[in-house]
Amino acid sequence: MERQQRRLYITQLLKQRSVDITEKQSALLDAYIDSEEVIEQCRLISVTTENLIMNLQENIALNNIREKLLQLPNGTVDKPYAQVFSLSQYGLEKIASFTLQFPESLGITYDQQTGQISGTPLDQGEFRVKLIFKLTNQSDPEKTHEKEISFVVNPDPKKLWKNIPSPADGIFWKPDEVKDAAEMLGHKLAVASKRGRSHAHEGIYRDDDFEHYFDAQTGYAVIAVADGAGSAKYSRKGSQLACEGVVNFFKNIPADEYKQLDDVITAYHAHKDEASKNALNEFLTQRFSKAPFEVHQQLVNYTAELAANGDEVKLKDFSTTLLFVLLRRFEFGYSVMSFSVGDGGMGIYRRNEDVTLLGTPDGGEFAGQTRFLTMPEIFADTSFYKRIGFRIVQDFTAIVLMSDGITDPKFQTDANLTRIEKWDELWDDLCGKNNDGVTVNFSTENENTATELLNWMDFWSPGNHDDRTIAILY
Amino acid sequence: MRRLPIYFLIDISESMIGEPIQMVEEGLAMIIKALKEDPYALETVHISIVVFAGQARTLVPLQEIITFYPPRFPIGGGTSLGNGLGHLMYELRKNTIQTTAEQKGDWKPIVFLFTDGVPTDDTQVAIAEWKKNWASKSSMVAVSFGEEADLEVLQKLTENVFMFKNTSVNQYKSFFKWVTASIKSSSMSVETGGTGFELTKPDESVISKLDPREMPPKPRFDHNFTVFTGKCQHSQKPYLIKYRRTTQPTMVGGMEMNSLVYRLVGAYLVDSSYFDYCDETGGANKVGTDELQGAPTCPSCGNQYGLSICQCGKIHCCGNEEISTCPWCGNKGRYGFGEGRMDINSAQG
Q: What is the pTM of this model?
């Protein structure tokens, strides 16, 4: 302290303590404040006060930093993590220097030079990262302070899904995944059906099913795909019975009746007049449309049989959707008759050309609002006939039948099902344009198309983990 | 992918200070942690947190669980449910993806409303708008924290009104487990073709559903708690002093009567965001100092007397210093112990 300051300090001190000083004593004070003892004591006071203030400021600054809630953006286990860490982004101004210390085995490091946090988290959970720092203008330049920052590493969503086999001794058990291949109409058929992740996670059954049949003698082929309702307890059996029922129905049509049908179709193709149209309509409504009705009736009878044996079952327990086509190759092209009840989709696809959608999916605004084969009202309604379709096409890249486990992730909406771009995307996806590097080779020489198709069905789509079934005639 | 949006509309009025808000903070963190381990929820559930006191804000914008990290909850003055609902509807309007021909929209949003008080504003307009535009397009679960919330108002909003007895840590745990389980089953339901809103069965001793046909009992008091706002002389930081309302028998003219007293719960520091959430228009209730039992120390600087009242009527802390400066009005003065009764303004709660 300067002499002037010393004098001021001591006179203020005396005043505060109510010690009065006379003129005479004032001279004495002047001498006193120049004594070595007072000079030293004043210096100490000055240093102490400075330290006090500095400590207080340091404490406030530290306190403010410690009170701040700091969190690093979340990481995901096994996924590369990169973030730049800067003080300003957290509003930490009073820090002179710092470093970050991550738990050793986590696999994440901080580069002080670049400010980059990087690495791949090896473990999931909430971790404490140490921020070790020095304050600007701190009294002890060597001292470091610590603050903990929380860092969350999320689990890999794919690894959360368990794959529990369905109980093989359970009632109406069927394999969790199946595939099949066949030759028909000079084409090949690959078909695969796989339990969805949501079912695998719970260890419950696959509800989807399929069936196919080709009679070389008559030249007619049938392909059916069905999706049992998730909410119905025996829908896995329902879908199975529906597919089998359809195939059996067409197997039982006598060969000469198919001959008549050949003539009806050929005449229709040649003339397209009222008479040939009516003949075709007659077949569709009187004969073809009996297939879904007969299968419905079989389900009714089956339920009644079980109930008669004392089982507590209702028709609703076998709720299932059903899509099927009856195909025949002619010299002028292919005839395609189709029927659909419920969601999913089927179409005649010509790559980069067009798609002919067979049937409109019964979708509501909310899931679970679809229609099922087990509902008697679908037959009562005149809209029943809208479920039946007939087409003659020259050629195709593929005729595809799929359950909503495929259409939901790949098409999202029913409107998209009519768009050729979406079908081209699906075809490219099948042919290898996907993140998983899975390719289905549709060359007729390939023996493994169905297996590849089954692998392809493992594709990842967040929130879409329903059973998946797809049948492709190519 | 279709999102399942979950909104939390949380009352952060002063009466929530202390254990309730800390429990909500921990509860939300617990919910998120549990949902992260559930594959259904992790992929479909999106979460947003809207808080309200006198004012309402979005504390966490709608986001997927994977990017979410638990926030720190602020505290404010007032219980403006009208503002809270208004802000929630703003968020719903802004965020909800509608189903179009090109894409599938969100599942029906689910709203969890937690409140412990009686609205301090007019809720009619907001409730009317809610009923008109959102009641059928979302599912709301209103939870009364303790018995003091205005159940009649909650029943106007939704048929899902629950009473939560929030008196112990275990009850909070059980409550948040129920919320978590309900979110999980809802997210599973959307994937398996259900309606997307499935509350699981709660532990009846902790959470009970109110029958919409029964008129709820009127709350005995407006609030279970009374709260005062103080400021530290040294740090200038605001803090809240919380008292629980209770009755105690007293002899009045030879007759035993129950008189109302306030027992100290504690004093809690809040950050300056407190004033952002306060409703400035609301009036305050007066409480007499002779009804208060116990006085806190300053939660900021540790001063002995946390409940010193300046001439301006505001509260600050006092220590051994001879001259105190009121951090509210700047008035300097010496403090002694007051005699008799003094009325002080309580916060709105």
A: 0.80
